[in-house]
User: Fold this.
Amino acid sequence: MPDIHHPGRRSVLAAATAGAASLGASWLLTGCTGASAAPVLPTDTKGGTPDRGGTLRIARPPASDAETLDPASALSAYEYLGALYNRLVRVGANGDLVPDLAESWEPDAKARTWTFRLRAGVTFHDGRKLTSADAAYTLRHILAKETASPQAAVLAPLIDTKKLRTPDAHTLVVPLKTPNAEFPSLLTHYNCYVIPDGSARGIGRTGVGTGPFKLESFTPAGPGRITAYEDHWGGRPVLDAIDFYSVADMSARSNALLAGQVDLLSQTNLDFATARVVAASDRATIARVENAQWYVLPMLTTEKPFTDVRVRQAMKLAYDPEHVVKVALQGAGTAGWDNPVPPSDPAHITTHPEHDPEQARHLLRKAGHEGLTVDLYTSSYDPVFTPMALAYQDSAKRAGIRIRVKTASADSYYTQIWMKKPLMATYWYTGRPVDQLFTQVFRSGSSYNETAWSDKKFDALLDRARQETDDERRRELYGEAQTFVIEKGGAMTPMFADRLVGISRKVRGYAEHGFEFDYLGIGLKGA
Amino acid sequence: MFSFIARRAGAAIGTLFLSSILVFLAVQALPGDVATQVLGKDATPDAVSALREKLKLDQPAWERYIDWIGGALHGDFGLSLVSGKAVGGEVGLYLGNSALIALVTVLFAVTGSIVLGILAGLYRDRWPDHLISTVSLIGMSVPEFVVATVLVLCFSVALPWFPAVVLYGPEASVGQLMPAVWLPALALAVVMAAYIVRMARTSVIDVMASEYVTTARLKGLSTWRVVTRHALPSALLPTLHVIALNVAWLAGGVAVVENVFNYPGIGKLMLASVQNRDLPVIQAIALISAVVYVVCNLAADLGAMALNPKLRTRGRTR
Assistant:
């Protein structure tokens, strides 16, 4: 299962096993902090510079017993990747592409061939020099059938691996099958970390990359340790080492933080009760990753009544996203207005239809579905799912829509409910560049097209956008694509939520956005 | 006496056979196809059907059952679908860790609760009895994860005496696990002890009211001697069954508590396996739990027989 979609595959266990347990725990924990109902979560974590050295202890949810360090794999141990490896390009804090291993990149006039110039003087952890052959090998590895990389579905229709060229040691030329002005953004995906030439067989265990840390030990679904790589091209990291521990249960993870056994809970969106307890603790506090979670109520456009675009429009007009943000997130997020492109993305447009229950009622009547009753599935997989479903239910009442909220088992949620039930709750991580987002989740036939929406006009619009070399014009086209999705698509996007991350009060320099984590700058005070 | 043992053993084997069928059927009924769950969502239909064939999922259920139970009888539980390792060895590793908790729990719970039960019985309707009975009633009513969470808050967060969670994997040594064993064991012991305390209390009250205790007292024996030599063995007898049932219950209680403490034991492995639909592992664990249950009951019956002359001779007198 892809963690791109729900990095929470790891937290599935947490949700499944904790079920009752975490409920009990948070109930207890809330009891301890007193009955204050208003959220008193800090908005900013402590600034200031960390001391050099020290070991950071991170608790992470394990992906599976079959975890691997191969970045291209669907079962990669995500938290290690950014520390051990680099990509050619990454996403900057403002959503733009910034250099990583590639210093520069440019297309030909038609955006059909892309040339990447690699940084000089970069070495792998085993001492070998990075060359363009490694970058070419990485692309071939991602696209190889036996790798079964989730990112292959996005890149395979574009790249002709046989035509990859490496004219010199620091130049990589990628000819594309069809023009694509957004191609480099697709390489920011976390399956695209660069591995050494010929390393496919062993990379899952060795973890040899060019990143700021090198591997000391790794156990699938177990503990592991990485240490500072002195010869890292970007300078030595602040920390001496990072210890990773895998803790499946969410309340166990927060207990470890509260007891001072770990310093950071990665990949965890704490529920509000736990977050409040953590923030009130002397040892730990909460860091927010703004708009990190993109919450969706997908309607299967192949299932009645959502085959009718008027019903889909009515479902969207019927509810007030501001209400959902207020109720389900206690204000810690941004209303989505059914636009899947997050507000932080440079391509994001702000126009959207207003909340209009009367119009929704009217559309339903025209479609012959007055007084519509539908089941909405949720689970304890994520703490926000059920509050979101209930808030939607409440809000849609005014349009005469009756929502029956059904809770399904968390551990089979993504195999039994997702993409099978006509209406359910789900989420993604934000941080996908706009072309990746639309290609992966909204294009006809894509494997993650969770609404099974298929619109030839939309696909053609996407094709036009990615071929457009004029930046301004391209941005307009992606804007049109957003309008298209808002008006015709099957996905309701009530909101983007801040992720609440538990960290120790000793941690300094924590910075995370999308799939980017600053391993170089993070450190400890008084380490 | 021999025929009694034979009958009990026969019933135990029959129970095990029935439970193996139930375990097999229950696992088949888990929602979600193994092949899709293992391969993930990107799997092509070809890959799924190939895996189904490899796992013999295309065969009828009864054939697969016979394959499985045949292997299990030889100690071969097949290979884990996720890690590819032999199930027997993997389960054994986690089982060993859980046994550590179980051992400490049983020591805590059994000794502690028998002592408390006897005290309560001897001080019937006086304040020690009220105190012990009330506390044990609370212990009985509160679920183990709540007890565990309270213990963590008290003894890991507020007073940093014990680790809140185990950060080691299943290969951890006994020395590494030892500091982390006490809180889970205590949590389980609290819940488990309540039943034993109440049972022991009732037995002691019954026995102390019996004629032979009165006789012993009239003979001028000290209270201490009456209790230890005369009352205790008889009082322990009905308690044995409760202890046995509780030891068997540990298997289930451990699963919940292990997750609160991230303890690398059998309960954690079971939840991970259910999540991954790792059928061979789930089946092996369920079968082993059934064995534990049956063996505990058998041991209780035989133990009761050893302590009770009447049961011992029942076969002969009729």
Summary: Chain A is about 30% helix and 20% strand. The radius of gyration of chain A is 23 Å.
